[in-house]
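Ligand: adenosine-5'-diphosphate. Inputs:
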Amino acid sequence: MTNLGFPENYVEILPEVRAFLQSDLKLHIGGRWVPSISGETFETHDPSSGRLLARVPSAQADDVDAAVRAARATFDSGAWHLKLSPSDRGRLIWRLADLIETHAPILAQLDSLDNGKPVKKAQQVDAPLSAEHFRYYAGWPSKIEGATIPVNTPGTFNYTVREPVGVCGLIVPWNYPLLMAAWKIAPALAAGNCIILKPAEQTPLSALYLARLFEEAGFPAGVFNVLTGFGETAGAALVAHPGVDKIGFTGSASVARTILRNSADTLKRVSLELGGKSPNIIFADADLEQAVIGATWAIFGNNGQSCTAGSRLYIQRSIFDRVLTGMSDQAANIRVGMGMQTDQPDLGPVVSMEQMHTIMGYIEDGRSSGGQAVVGGQRIGGNLANGYFIEPTIFTGVQDSMKIVREEIFGPVVCAMPFDDADEVLHRANETPYGLAAGLWTRDLQTAHRFAARMQAGTIWINTWGDTDAASPFGGYKQSGHGREMGKEALDLYSEVKSVWIRVG
Ligand code: ADP
Ligand code: MG
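Predicted complex:
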């Protein structure tokens, strides 16, 4: 069997990836590799070819309990947040970033195989951004400070300290498997917590590989634990466990509601980074060449499988046809293919058959409500028929009230709609339960600032789309989430503030 039996046009599977896929994959608990207690496993597949990649343990409530005990024991021992100096903690986090960088080709192949994304993108975007995330937070352990407070009581000294929350359950999605994990792990570590990571069942591989890098970096056992498993079992048990102090979640709004309900009994701290239906507005005075490219990649980047996808496109009426023609040309030239093929495509498949059916359902719904897919709108067959490929799709003739315009699709589908004036489009842009990101394209400074102030979203992009940085806070207004990840704001999600009073007079 050449190249592990993957399609002939695949790049060579790295020996390390080969060995990893063929190894007996286990949960990582308390510094040890263990099978699930029940012995249950599940399969993870390559969405480009449908091929089975590996079997991984399916963690259940008893495995969650074991992981919580291990993380708790490490936390209570102070091995991470008390016995290591801030500088040593920073050094370990930095070393992890170095390891992610040197192992980037392996991590990229694992994420490409598991998620379908082009391996080149995983190598050039996901892996370096993940490393950068750890580097940014490596600087924080020595800078997390409290304050001395000028209280009114005479003879009394009051100060604050910031302490880790404790054991954090981090539940992440499949769209950027390594990066979404890094977004949560890095600030949680910097703040001194012990972690249980639950990757998405669609993409469990890079999380397990990351645990090896934690070992190699020399973290104390039990600081970082990984449970592969399903949301309804492993995820739900983490949320309900009284020994978990905090849940950090990225995923869908519907699962977030379940998590909030299930966290009520233990009154758990929960932060949520959820979906969106982000408005992207192009004014007639914009640099249209830039706007057309920007709006194209705002939706089709990562196949629309981004919580910030620019899926509601509002185009000023006088330039509607021009922009649409430009975007249609762009979209028609996007090369869709298998994530690991030697001739690298721009986009891979969507993550799973289930997701493909969901997206196709929205496309059908858009059509039956009177919309037209002027570009795309079909599943791709031919030599891609074994995977889950959908054409980049642009809808016109749709109304704000339609399901396809209102609901998050999480696929390569954009709704293009004309607007006439600024007040109208501002109102329409904000008329959504979501508020993760919003963008506009204009050369007018006043419009830019006015919209930056009045659009209800955690991130505003003006004449650009998709920029993020470890140092800049990210998160949602309204039903797009609770709390801010990245930047110093993320440290708030993973720390408690203690106020200390001392009678000195
Ligand atoms: P998506 O719709 O992007 O697949 P989900 O919200 O379904 O996102 O899943 C995101 C993460 O949440 C995954 O790791 C998944 O296993 C987990 N998850 C799903 N259901 C639950 C649940 N009931 N409790 C905890 N975690 C869950
Ligand atoms: Mg998979």
